[in-house]
Each structure stands twice: as structure tokens, then as C-alpha cells.
Amino acid sequence: MRQTDYVILGLLSERPMTGYQIKRIVDLRFRFFWSESFGQLYPALRSLHAAGLIEETGADTKRSHAQRTYKIKQEGLAALQGWLARPVERESVRLEILMKLYFSHLTEAEVMAGQVRLFQEKHEQDLAMLRMADKELRSIVNDDPNHPYILQVVDCGLKVNEAYLKWSREALKFLESRGNK
Amino acid sequence: MRQTDYVILGLLSERPMTGYQIKRIVDLRFRFFWSESFGQLYPALRSLHAAGLIEETGADTKRSHAQRTYKIKQEGLAALQGWLARPVERESVRLEILMKLYFSHLTEAEVMAGQVRLFQEKHEQDLAMLRMADKELRSIVNDDPNHPYILQVVDCGLKVNEAYLKWSREALKFLESRGNK
DNA sequence: CGGCGCATGTAACTTGTTACATGATTCC
DNA sequence: GGAATCATGTAACAAGTTACATGCGCCG
């Protein structure tokens, strides 16, 4: 069982879904701390099905590219709960921008400023999306037992992205002052 | 050329080094935003050598497990500078703790609090190391043209880890209040 | 009827980790 | 001479991406 398997089980614990829907949700909601590709998702769904942790609901599973909606089974939920209780194994972060910046005395400050501006734009977008999610969730926080937990996740995103943006502004100020020399 | 190749070129641009020393530096200084394993490093050193971007300095390269000290060549420096100027391609973050938290209405709040405490401890360590690096660098900021840039990198680490810790405290407060119910 | 969005799937490839084997050097 | 640390290397595996092929259903 890989991390991908547990992400799938988690999302299926909310409601039955297709692989495509899972991918959409990961891209939208988990964007700032996770990613999955179809190349991981579809094989993982097959193997979870083969392992009896999820089942297919609905009709025509015969056609080759028919829509497949999966539903979590008791066994799947148990596996998910086991994972939730086990300590985190892999926390991976790779920020190419920081590696570049580390060596950027070898290049023009103005070039590096361009890199930081792109970084800043990306995280401004993330922050905007997180603020929207936060606002919406707060208005329906009591509708579902998992909403308060999701708010915590969003809050981490808010804080980290605010830190990124604050840093971007300062780094840009520094690089721009260098560029003028 | 992969990301690993450029990290190696970057470190060799400071001074000649062995693969082992590169690994040590990545583990210590880049810890909070990067990682490399020996399984990547040694083959990468070979291929950079074969490509003529780095050269071996020193004597006995005949023995099988002899120490190999590599030095960057002009071509290597040019390749590195090219990479620095190209836009960032891959920015990857995977925070298992947030994925777990997202689904943690399915488990005991006290269990999840344990996960957050581990996260908190890890980032307290990172922050302590970053604060030390910051202090030391500030005292010798004019000794080397790359020090001001490295300070920027450290500053990003400081801000992000402070955000993580602030979040951890709040998330713990939330989870502990849930646990008592 | 053409394009778009939904949808599934896989093969080739790249990337990264782990475990292991080996050997050199230093210091007690 | 034994332990720790420095040091190199690889093979097997695991994880992840990309590019491509297929096909459905809806809307204009």
C-alpha cells in the first residue's frame, strides 16, 4: 500500500467517485500540499479493487472505457483508519527556487528576481484559492463532522503561503537593490 | 541533466569535493528544502564526469573504493549558469500530515494530536538549526559574495518554519479540545 | 459535425530509495 | 586490532511523470 492508495480511500470515504473525479479533487483541494497523476491513480484503483478494499458500483463495466464508480468497503475504511493512526513516514519538499537562489551570486540579480516573481505569482494564486475555501468552509462548518478538520488543513496552507509571499517581497527588494548596482 | 546534476555543480562551484561531502552538505544545509541519496549522487557524479562538466583532482583513482575529489570545469559552470537562468520546472511538496489531518474525523483526535506533535518537534529542530545558520551568516556576511544570497534562503526557511510552528500550536489546541469531549 | 470536457487506460521512461557490499582512514 | 567514520558503488525496487491511445456525451 502506497500513499496514493490511502488518498483514494480517504476520498472514497466521503462518497463514491470515479478516478477522474478523484484527480480533479486532488488538483483543486490538495493542490498546495499534494499531487497525483492519472498514471498513479488508475493502477492504484485497480489494485485496491483487486485487494477487496473498494468495490465498483453501477452498471456497464464491460465496455473498455466505461465510467467506473468506486465505493469504499469496510475493509478499506479499516485500512484507512490504520494509516491515519500510524506515524507519518515521508514528508517531502523540494523547492528548486531556493536551490537556485543559493547559487545565484553566479548569475544576474535581475534574472533571479524574475524567478522569484514567478514563485510569488504562483503562491498568490494558491493563497487566493485558500482564502476562498476558508471563507466557504467557515460558513458551513457545522454541516459535516470533517469540516473543522479541513479548516485546520486550509489554515496551514494560509499560514505557509502568507510566509512565502512575505518572503518573496523581501527577497525581491533585496534582488532589485542588487540589480541596480 | 537532472536537478541532482545542478546541485552537484553548484556545490562544486564553491570548492572541490567528494560525493560524500556533497551528501553531508545537502543533509545539513539543504535539509529543509531538499534531499539527495547516495544512489542518486554517485551515478550523477560519474555521468557529469563522463560529460566533461567536472574533473577528478588528486591521485590514486585506480583503486576501487578510493576517495574521488571532483572539481568543476568551465563547461560545468556554464551549464550551471544556464540552469540558474531557466525558469523553475518542478516545485514538489508532499505533506502527509495534512492529508491525514484532512481525514482525521475518522480517527481519535488524540491520535492525530500525536502526529502533529511529531511534526512540531521536527520543525522546532529545523528552526533551531536555521536560527544558528542565520546568526553565523550575519556575522560573516561580507566574507563571500554568495553569503547575502544564502541569507535569503535561510530567511525563507525561518519564515516557513515559524509558520509551521504557529500552525502546530493552534492545531494542537483544536485537537486537544476535541479529545476532551 | 467539430470541439470540449469527461473518462479510462497503459507503456516507456525518469526519478528516487533502500539495502547491501566493499574498502580506507583515524583514533583509541 | 576494533570501532567509528569516511568513502564509493550498485542492484533491486518503488514511485512518479509523460505521452499517447481510446472512446463517450453534450453543446453549439
Question: Could you explain the architecture of this structure?
Answer:
2 copies of one chain form a homodimer. The first copy, chain A, is mainly alpha-helical and 181 residues long. Chain A has helices at residues 3-14, 19-29, 38-50, 74-85, 96-102, 109-139, 147-179; strands spanning 54-57, 69-72, 91-95. Chain A has 7 helices and 3 strands; from the N terminus they run H-H-H-E-E-H-E-H-H-H. Chain A has a two-stranded antiparallel sheet. The longest helix of chain A is centred in the C-terminal third of the chain and has 33 residues, at 147-179. At the A-B interface, helix 1, helix 4, strand 3, helix 5 and helix 6 of A face helix 1, helix 4, strand 3, helix 5 and helix 6 of B. Strand 3 (91-95) of chain A pairs antiparallel with strand 3 (91-95) of chain B. Chain A binds a DNA duplex (28 and 28 nucleotides) through residues 2-4, 18-21, 24, 35-40, 42-43, 45-46, 63-68.
* Main pleated sheet of chain A: 2 strands, antiparallel
Give unreliable regions of chain A as ranges: none
Q: State the strand order across the main sheet of chain A.
A: 1-2
- The secondary-structure element order of chain A is HHHEEHEHHH
Number of helical regions of chain A: 7
Interface with most residues: A-B, 66 and 66 residues
Q: How would you describe the oligomerization state of the chains in this entry?
A: homodimer
Beta-strand portion of chain A reads 5-15%
As a percent range, the share of helical residues of chain A equals 55-70%
Structural shape of chain A: elongated
Q: How many beta-strand runs of chain A? A: 3
Overall mean pLDDT of chain A? 94
Measured on Cα atoms, how large is the radius of gyration of chain A?
A: 21 Å
User: Roughly how many Å apart are the termini of chain A?
Assistant: 55 Å
The tally of domains of chain A stands at 2
Structural class of chain A: mainly alpha
